[in-house]
Design goal:
- By secondary structure, the chain is α+β, with helices and mostly antiparallel strands.
- It has six helices and five strands, in the order H-H-H-H-E-E-H-E-E-E-H.
- The protein has a domain of about 90 residues.
- The chain is flat, with a radius of gyration of 30 Å.
- The C terminus is likely disordered.
Length: about 250
């Protein structure tokens, strides 16, 4: 006897959805999936930014709350705490220090303190390096990190985004047989705080019109965030340079 299907003959092989074939999503599921992804794209940056800002403000509030006298602290009289008060106090304190160091007495005290620090073997190296970095990055008259360029790295035919930090000076400039060398910082992705310091002839650089912020965004995002063409102010061009030659055209010609 042959077993028969109670509701009729079994479906023939090859009909219907084959085994392992993905089930097609309904329009409702696809639409909900798109809504979910759109919600993540909108809420994730806002939430992460708010969380980081809140952590910074909370850190300053906890650190600076003990420095504010109780009679001047609104938290002593109010039944609730005031977030951001410590952060504002730190900003006011830093501004006051800057105002004091701009005066004649402040500059004299700074010179006296730096002379003491320069006599300490380890401390003087740390202090000198940090001071030079902050002065270079924050000084209004500095052009460091204001030029976004392309350089061929790590080999010919591959290009990477880099930032010009200034002209090459000192012993490095004297040792190289080049008249126009520049210091170039080549950041890594997605962490731009690490990278390489390169000394490159200016003629080998391709200057870009994007701003430093747009270049940093492109480096951090790994190329996902691309600035529009011509969005920035063109950097001052160096000597005339030929456009990049594709790798396939680098063969020797007679």
């Amino acid at each position: 006897m042959h077993d028969e299907h109670p509701n009729g003959p079994k479906p023939a092989a090859g009909r219907g959805r084959e085994a392992g074939e993905p089930r097609p999503h309904s329009p409702v599921v696809a639409r909900l999936r798109n809504y979910l992804l759109a919600g993540i794209i909108v809420t994730a940056p806002i939430s992460i930014t708010f969380f980081i800002v809140w952590q910074v403000v909370d850190f300053f509030d906890e650190t600076a709350s003990s420095l504010i006298p109780e009679r001047y602290n609104p938290g002593t009289y109010l039944p609730f705490s005031m977030p951001g008060l410590g952060f504002l106090f730190v900003l006011a304190l830093i501004t006051l220090v800057g105002w004091f160091t701009a005066s004649l007495l402040g500059r004299s005290m700074m010179r006296f303190g730096e002379r003491i620090l320069h006599r300490m073997p380890v401390v003087r190296s740390i202090y000198g390096t940090l001071k030079q970095i902050f002065e270079t990055v924050l000084a209004n008259s500095s052009r460091s990190f204001r030029e976004v360029v392309l350089i061929e790295y790590p080999r010919r035919g591959l290009w990477a985004i880099a930032f010009v930090t200034g002209p090459t000076k000192g012993e490095v400039a004297e040792a190289m047989n080049e008249t126009d060398l520049v210091n170039v910082f080549l950041p890594t992705t997605p962490n731009p705080t690490s990278g390489f310091l390169l000394f490159v002839p200016r003629r080998d650089l391709v200057h870009l019109g994007m701003t430093i912020e747009e270049g940093m965004k492109m480096v951090i995002s790994g190329g996902i965030v691309t600035p529009p063409t011509g969005g920035g102010v063109p950097a001052p061009a160096g000597p005339a340079q030929a456009p990049p030659v594709p790798a396939g055209q680098l063969a020797r010609t007679d």
